[in-house]
From TrEMBL:
Protein name in UniProt: Transglutaminase domain-containing protein
Organism name: Treponema saccharophilum DSM 2985
A Pfam family this chain is assigned to: Transglut_core
Alphabetized Gene3D superfamilies for the sequence: 3.10.620.30, Immunoglobulins (2.60.40.10)
Domain of life: Bacteria
Length: 567
């Protein structure tokens, strides 16, 4: 494994005059000519053109870019240029096609040696001219956001024009709750409403009803469509408590799968559904860096879709195929403080509530043993926050976390009687007991990254599971019962007061990388297809592989995720 890393540094300043663009561009160009240290950090000398539009070719001149691009990349206004956008890459010259969604902002070249001082690029469409407004531009316009002050999870109504008759890939973007050492990037301080949390209530060309997402804070709100970005309106976001988000880490996470000894007696296909790291308020940035071979679909139902089309084998010939994809993932520490007296009653009509308290194939919250245990633990306590803490404290006091993994077919409910289990058992049972009490909760699957100086990447990785529960007016609260119980773990930073039991109820470090939040019910594409489900893995989904109804034999190996770099 190789370590190629840098610091994500994203800003999107909204400069509105060509004169200002010229001044800033000249200042940044001079600043970027500072002497390079021995690490050959990339240096941008000039951008041509400094003002352009989508489809133009941007030429970046400088030094120390590297002879080959490999995993290096160019960022414009916080958006990374995808592999297809590079025309030329040499040690002193880069040519890229300006993408369709380009915004005004800083341009950086990032290599394994570091990040360049930025240059500035301006989108010509955003530079004002002295002329009457063109009403045919179709840029979204926000007239009002009402109410102007509301709690997290509340519905606000946005009125205006040019939102589009259907939402599609458009979004409503809020100011994010980022504090402390979160980032200097402007993009680090914005968060879109979350479709997976059912934040969007309705969408029309002139009106949007949307819930304030988990992780939002007081500040500006705007609408983003494929036509562009609207102006902003101020929204004061209230919360039942305090959520601190800071100290981000970015990982390059790689996944490999091998399909071997494929032997088909007739035409058929094999479909792989590779889990992608999931976007959330504590993990806001996920981008696929490389994918070989080119996927059929890069992102569908939080999965990368690959498909092998097979013809009838001749003379018992077989072949194998390797699939590899890497993701750049940024996660943050999250610490919460909540006064139980501020807890609001649940809106039980919300889709989020109904979905997050119902039993499913993974969380058997209706099981009688689970229900009885949960009720016995909380007694007469009715406050959901205090109930969640009571279940957490009970599990820490009465159950022991095992150092290794239990067999894949083990039942997490065995923890009730056996009193010992692994991190998977702890997360699933904790979630089940909270749901049985009517508290919206999710199990989370992913990986846990620990420092390891003996490894090439400097870290070690293991599959891991934890939980989240929802408090109305506040948002999702992380809980890692296994780590709170004392599961062996090396942290990059000291836990406050070395009190892991208190810390992992309501807080999470930046060493958790999530692939799933809750159960992902993947629908079978073929009625008679043969499906493969992988239990107790780094992601929760019902189908990982599906073979066509034709006769086919093959073997597959899914390697656990690895971290190639950290920065």
């Amino acid at each position: 494994m190789s370590m190629k890393f840098s610091l994500l540094f994203r800003k999107s300043p909204a400069f509105r005059t060509l004169l200002y663009v010229s001044v800033i561009g000249a200042a940044v160009s001079v600043f970027s000519l500072v002497a390079v240290n021995s690490r050959r950090v990339p240096v941008i000398a000039s951008l041509d053109p400094p003002v352009g539009s989508a489809g133009d070719i941007l030429t970046i001149s400088g030094e120390n870019f590297g002879i080959l691009r490999e995993s290096s990349f160019v960022e414009i206004a916080g958006s990374r240029i995808t592999s297809s956008g590079y025309i030329e890459w040499s040690d002193s010259l880069i040519k890229v096609v300006i993408p369709s969604n380009v915004q005004d902002g800083l341009v950086s070249v990032v290599t394994g040696e570091g990040r360049s001082k930025p240059g500035f690029f301006a989108n010509s469409s955003g530079i004002p001219v002295v002329a009457p407004p063109d009403t045919s531009t179709s840029l979204p316009v926000v007239s009002s956001v009402l109410p102007s002050s509301a709690f997290i999870g509340s519905v606000v109504t946005i009125t205006g024009t040019n939102f589009g008759s259907v939402r599609g890939s458009s979004s409503v973007v809020f100011t994010a709750n980022r504090s402390g050492e979160a980032s200097d990037s402007a993009d680090s301080f914005s968060i879109p409403a979350d479709e997976r949390s059912f934040d969007y209530e309705s969408w029309s060309d002139s009106e949007i009803k949307v819930r304030i997402p988990d992780g939002a804070a007081s500040g500006n709100v705007f609408v983003r469509t494929e036509k562009g970005v609207s102006g902003t309106k101020r929204l004061d976001v209230k919360s039942a408590g305090t959520k601190k988000v800071f100290s981000g880490k970015t990982y390059v996470v790689k996944l490999d799968e091998d399909v071997d000894s494929i032997d088909s007696k007739n035409a058929t296909n094999i479909t792989l559904r590779v889990p992608r790291p999931v976007v959330s308020s504590f993990q806001p940035f996920v981008e696929m860096n490389e994918c070989v071979p080119e996927p059929l679909i890069a992102d569908f139902n939080n999965s990368v879709i690959h498909q092998i089309e097979l013809q009838k084998s001749r003379q018992n010939q077989s072949y194998k195929q390797k699939f590899s994809q890497s993701f750049v993932v940024t996660t943050f520490c999250v610490e919460t403080e909540l006064n139980p007296r501020n807890v609001k009653a649940y809106d039980k009509e919300r889709v989020l509530y109904r979905k997050s308290v119902a039993p499913d194939q993974l969380v058997e919250s209706a099981d009688s043993a689970v229900v009885e245990m949960a009720r016995a633990i909380v007694g007469k306590e009715s406050n959901p926050y205090l109930q969640a803490r009571a279940v957490y404290d009970y599990m820490l006091a009465n159950y022991t976390v095992l150092p290794g993994m239990r067999p894949s077919d083990s039942d997490p409910k065995e923890l009730l009687s056996w009193k010992r289990g692994d991190a998977y058992d702890f997360a699933i049972l904790y979630t089940a007991m909270l749901r049985s009490l009517g508290i919206p909760s999710l199990p989370v699957a992913g990986i846990l990254v620990s420092p390891n100086e003996s490894s090439e990447s400097g870290v070690s990785v293991r599959n891991h599971w934890w939980s989240e529960f929802y408090i109305e007016g506040f948002g999702w609260i992380p809980v890692d019962v296994a780590l709170g119980n004392g599961m062996e773990f090396d942290s990059f930073r000291a836990i406050p007061n070395n009190d892991v039991a208190s810390y992992y109820f309501g807080s999470i470090d930046n060493q958790h990388v999530a692939f799933s939040r809750g159960w992902n019910e993947v629908k079978q594409s073929l009625v008679n297809g043969k499906i493969v489900y992988r239990p107790r893995t780094f992601a929760f989904q019902s189908i990982w592989e599906e073979a066509g109804e034709g006769s086919v034999n093959y073997s597959s190996l899914w390697n656990n995720p690895i971290v190639q770099g950290i920065y």
